[in-house]
Each structure stands twice: as C-alpha cells, then as structure tokens.
UniProtKB/TrEMBL annotation:
Protein's name in the database: Copper chaperone CopZ
HMA domain span: 1-67
Annotated GO biological process: copper ion transport
CDD domains, A to Z: HMA
Subcellular location: Cytoplasm
Gene Ontology CC entries for this record: cytoplasm
InterPro entries recorded: CopZ, Cu-bd, Heavy-metal-associated_CS, HMA_Cu_ion-bd, HMA_dom, HMA_dom_sf
Primary location: cytoplasm
GO MF annotation: an example: copper ion binding
Amino acid sequence: MEITLNVKGMTCGHCEKAVKGAVQELNGVHGVEVTLDSNRVTVAYDDAIVSKQQIADAIEEQGYDVVS
Ligand code: 9UX
C-alpha cells in the first residue's frame, strides 16, 4: 500500500526530518519520502498494521496540517 499525502507547513529540512521520523517509527510503515517543494509525503505501509488516519495523526502531532 502506498499513499501520497499533501502536508502543509513543511518548509525547511528540519520539518522534513520531523515528519519523516514520526511516520517512520510507526509499526507497519516501510518507507517515507518527503518532497518539500511540492508539500508531498509518500508513505509505503502495510494497511493491515497501520491506517492512513494513524499516519496523518502522527504528522499532525508534529504540528503540520494534512490537507489530503
Ligand atoms: Mo524549519 Mo519547520 O526552521 O516547522 S523546522 S520551518
């Protein structure tokens, strides 16, 4: 399973690191790719273990807005 989320508020490399770290540590997540200039976070995960909602929540906990 792979999703691409549109995340608002990531502007520097520290943002990228914060988001990547928070998502990567979730069980069931296999890979995270952050593209700052297009506000995209692509996540490869096992949807039997973790949900899209849980991934979005982890990003929002870091202080960023998940738009879609
Ligand atoms: Mo960089 Mo991101 O100074 O919230 S950490 S903009």
